[in-house]
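Follow-up to my post from last week.
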Amino acid sequence: MLKARGLTKRYGDTEVVRGLDLNVRRGECFGLLGPNGAGKTTTLRLLLGLIEPDGGSIELAGIAVPQHAREARMKVGVVPQMDNLDPDFSVRENLLAYGRYFGMEKAAIAARVPELLEFAGLASKADAPISQLSGGMKRRLTLARALVHDPDILFLDEPTTGLDPQARHLIWQGLRRLIADGKTIVLTTHFMEEAERLTDRLAILDHGRKVAEGAPRALIESHIEPAVVEVYGEGLEGWMRDYASQVCQRFETVGETLFCYTDNAERVIDALKQAPTLRYLHRPSNLEDVFLKLTGRDLRD
Amino acid sequence: MTKFLRLPRLSWRFVPVWQRNYLVWKKLAIPAILGNLADPMLYMLGLGYGLGSLLPDVGGMPYLTFLAAGTVAYSTMNAATFEVLYSSFSRMHVQRTWDAIMNAPLTLDDVLLGELSWAVAKSLLSGLAILAVIWGLGLYGNFWMTLWIIPVVALVGFCFGGMGLVMNALSPSYDFFLYYFTLVITPMVLLCGVFFPVSQLPLPVQAVSAWLPLTHAIDLARPLVVGNMPGDIALHVAGLLIYGSLGYVIALALTRRRLLK
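User reply:
Got it. Predicted complex:
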């Protein structure tokens, strides 16, 4: 459904995307993960043919991009990172106007509107101005707008950033419905939970390169020890010196917390009994641990 | 910059952009018409009657007629300029409407052409309103000849729409547009024969005036009001077309650099 080979984009001397290969299959939900500045949004803009790559090739829905980006975009729905609903129009008018950009007849769009409003949970707000919508409603309307021309593939750039948990779950619910309907989805996110819940496969990007790719569970199994014990509290330094390297396969400190990665958590917890002032949290390792291992813990601004 | 410069690829996909702007305008049409049109008419009638009663014939015609012909061009210019400056900037920069449109199968070429054609529509409206006053007050020489003013008005809208889009592409904020008005639009109004004949200006200034787009506009509009065939039609039409087309092409490159890098 989507193929990219050796995709490269430079701004001046900095390579923002460096030789990226992607392959998204039909009906798949594919995630692009990465810290800020990893090149996720640039990659999406390249895939849509909005900007021209300095190298590499793209095939989107079987169409070469950017050469035939216009035709390719007929088959794609986009939910951008920043809301850009038309504030001069009501909810319904937003859908009508957007359908016209795809060359749809007014009657054909109008026939789809009730279904889209129902999907977005905005049936009662059809004639409300955009300014009256909450952040979650705006996102849902943006998602419905991206579906107006019934695209085969959907691009979502951080679809739940800035939403409260309730609103986020509603978006996830909508996306699962679309996946069940057989839509192909490409989404960028830096919420690990979102990636774990929704994606079939994902790629982790850092500095414009792909550093890992696979199904979320497979990535966790192949990149990291199965359990994590997070240790913090009084006397951490002494305990770390005496025990950490013996009982942890791998450990690192972030701020005042020690992350101890292990396939034998019992042993770590036994060793922790030597230091009753320490507190700890024992949990299975997750995608976030993989992400932090591969992209580092430095702050990206 | 050069890598953003290329010939526009025109397509009919610009039509929904035009339509979008029309539908928004229609919601507030009455106040918009009053706001856009009342102002130039008040000036024209106030100065035309007030100042005109003190003056002998200007340029071989009553001052009100002279001013009416200038006002057709002037208000058309203003309508196009305001549209592509303030309104287009809101859509491009503040509301990010263009970003949303370009995720559909439209290119920036289509979006700018949609904006430009909408500016032409607003100009037509503005020019027609002044023309209606000219008809109503019988300020014309030959009614059929005044009908030619309609395509002239569209051409003037195209010219200043294209030029204004360049400013839109360069502007960091609304305040920036003040430079354009102070340095380009206002001097042009004074140099191109809106309020008084260009022949009143010193010769070197007249030479500059001959190159300005508003002069071309007025040189077409004023004879048509009076009922004469304008001279050098091809020159004036070409002048307006070139200013507008160059503006569109340059604006396209600059906007591409701004939005699509």
